[in-house]
Amino acid sequence: MSAVLPVTPPVEAAAGYRHSVRRFARNRLAVAGLVVVILFLLFSFLGPLLYSTDQTHTNLTQVNLAPGGAHLLGTDAVGHDELGRLMYGGRVSLLVGLAAGILATVIGTLWGAIAGYAGGWIDAVMMRVVDAGIAIPALFILLVVSAITTPDTVGLILILGLVSWLVPSRLVRAETLTLKNRDYVLTLRAVGGTHGRAITRHILPNSVSTIVVAATFQVADAILLVAYVSYLGLGVQPPSTDWGGMLSAGLTAAYSGRWWLIVPPGLAIILVVCAFNAIGDGLRDTFDVRGRG
Amino acid sequence: MSILEIENLGVTFSTETGDVPAVRDVSLRVRPGETLALVGESGSGKSTVALAAMGLLPGSARATGRVRVGGTDVIGAAEADLAGLRGRTASMVFQEPATALDPLTRIGAQIAEVIRNHRPVPVKDAAREAVELLRRVGIPEPERRAFAYPFQLSGGQRQRVVIAMAIANAPSLLIADEPTTALDVTVQAEILDLLRGLAADSGTGVLLVTHNMGVVADFADRVAVMLQGEVVETGPVEEVLLRPTDDYTRRLLEAVPRLSLADPPSGARDRPVEEPVVDLREVSVRFGRGRRAVRALDGVSLTVRPGETVGLVGESGSGKSTAARVALGLVAPSAGSVSLFGADLGRAGGRARRALLSGVGVVLQDPVASLDARMSVGECVAEPLRVHRRGMSSAERRARVADVLELVRLPRDLAHRGPRELSGGQRQRVSLARALVLRPRLLVADEPTSALDVSVQRSVLEVIRELQDELGFACLFVSHDLAVVQQFAQHVVVLRAGRIEEEGSTATTLLHPRTDYTRRLIAAVPVPDPVLQRRRRDERRAAMGVKA
User: Fold this and answer.
1) Closest approach of B368 to chain A, Cα-based (Å)
2) Residue range(s) occupied by CATH 3.40.50.300 in chain B
């Protein structure tokens, strides 16, 4: 009888998670991105508790004040405090961006996993749907939809989610194609395991890094899309607003030198979008997966 | 004077977790016209030595000591000097011919490029030389084939093209890193014949890196055995392979499965008569449809009876893995029928099919891909229980997993570890534990040990055999290695291009084959005994009508 094999001591593998964190932490840009996102989240959601302002009623005695004094970033054309409005708009931008990005990733993941796993004509039909969707610019669909109805926050999340799941579905499908022929999936099927089990226990958990990376980029894209739509006046309606809406409202004022209506929301959008992209790049390097395109 | 001199070579890789020494204090020499085989198991550092000799170590490696190729120092040499050396004084043949060639360039042009890299030859002359080289390496119709793309050639022909590129500038040193590992045995024998002829004709020194002792016996003049980065034994091939002095060399040679060439003492056993556990009747499988359809199997009938082991052998593309997958219900036959334990697998649906499949265990080839790295060993082994024994409590399940781990000679507490922490042999034992956790009546093993080192292979095969005696399951054993099948199976089926070429009891079929194909297959297997191998080689070449 052969002897019980001695087992090599655990080599760092238990620390795989910590190892990933360390790799991520070494990417300065990604860490900076994470810090920026966290700061903006705190600013938008906790900020109003420390710096409370009235963002529902107009105050025509306090319009177009320059930064300084009681209003750190001045006020806009209807007397809303600009700093408070930045927090208030950030809530919508970040909430819609995060929710829509995650929704798009969830839809794309399911669609891609099913198409890739099923293969054959099901895959062909499902991916032609994706091709067709990618051929139509998302912005065009958004404008048409926004022209027909005026969406509330939930509506906006649904619409953005439904137009931007196409790219993640392609990524997940590609991942699924390689995973479904792994020996452990074949072994499971050979002992009578169901397709559902193969997808939920093996394929999705092993695609999780691809999915997380895709989700990060989706969030960045969604925040940008919200800004587009609102800038064109078709997003959330006043008195509610978001950073894109603020830009739009402040644009006329910019010519009269009231830069404080333009620069803060513009910077906020740029910083947050860049931050999410930096996080996505960092995660992609950490997990060593192919990201977009 | 030696063409390759390595003195006190040390190579250290710097990794995220610190420095890892890969090669320590290695000294070797290759003289013109001589073949030195560098052998060892995976991780022994043999390929690192080969790369160091070409100055091709990756950036994370630090080399110390001295490497001289044709009188030029390689370590610390400027990249420009190395570029002049590579492909001209020394050239290299890699393991995988599919990735060694540019898929988008015609092979004639690829060879001509190598020529023009080192010699100012007009384009036309280079093209003519390329055709000549193709002829020398035995490509039929070289004038026409020079315009072929790599994908239009077979694996063996691609390796011939790689060799043509390597010898294009008449190098004095050829480094071949596992040059035949990706090839079938019959092709391997041809490529080794070719390399031997080229080396003898031109007086080229060859550094052959390999794990295959048969290849060493067939090709090498001298052997250096490596273990964990150090050379443990060096000497002439007859000495090292037949009278090894080092303990490790002896153990390594003992573990090599040898094709037995003489009649076994006992006569062939009769096959059991009980109803077969798996029965393939006239099974055909086609992939694709229309004119581009590929017939993977064509009218194959085979049975495995309770308690016996049936070996399924054949070269790549012969359909042996497809046949195993048909038996597992993973591939549906386009014609014919499959029955498992007496019930028709094709007709059984849903619950009945699942019940049938619960009687089958599977072990596949790749030790890395066989286990989901995101699960613990325990979860991997428990997966069949979760599929078929839904009512089982988690405590019961844990106990069963621990029991079956013990059965395959692994520690019970391995269940908490991740597959990444295990070696290849341990992983294959975990796969075996998973296959046996439902107490199957049939084990299907598709090349279960071909990715493992010989010593590990032996221990895994021993475990399977002992458990078969203990538990009495039948086994369908797929392998390209005739020596392993000979030791392991009672009945053997030889497949060729999707059809059964020959079948019978292992004892008679592999010693007295009835068909030419099987005879050629057996003759091509190199045995790890240089004297015997030389005789077999001459016999094989005589049978093929080639002058020795």
Assistant:
1) 9
2) 260-359+441-524
Classify the complex by whether its ipTM is higher than 0.95, answering yes or no: no
The tens digit of pLDDT for each residue in A13-35 reads 444 567 777 777 888 888 888 99
DSSP H or E stretch at residue B533 = helix B530-543
d(CA B366, CA B69): 37
CATH number at residue A43: 1.10.3720.10
Cβ neighbours of B413 (radius 10 Å): 12
B376: which chain A residues are within 8 Å (Cβ-Cβ)?
Answer: none
The torsion region of residue B86 among left (phi > 0), alpha (psi -120 to 50) and beta comes to beta
Average pLDDT estimate for A158-162: 87
Q: What pLDDT digit, counting tens, does each position of A227-270 carry?
A: 888 777 677 777 778 888 788 777 777 777 777 778 888 888 88
DSSP, res B52: H
Q: Which of residues 158-187 of A touch B (CB under 8 A)?
A: 182-184, 186-187
Strands B230-236 and B278-287: unpaired
Q: Which CATH architecture has domain B260-359+441-524?
A: 3-Layer(aba) Sandwich (3.40)
Q: How far is A249 from chain B (nearest CA, A)?
A: 50
Three-state DSSP at B456 gives: helix
Residue B206's contacts (CB-CB under 8 Å, 6 or more residues apart) are B30, B34, B35, B36, B173, B174, B175, B176, B195, B199, B219
Q: Locate the chain B residue with the closest alpha carbon to A19.
A: B16
Cβ distance of B414 and A16 shorter than 8 Å: no
What is the model's pTM? 0.78
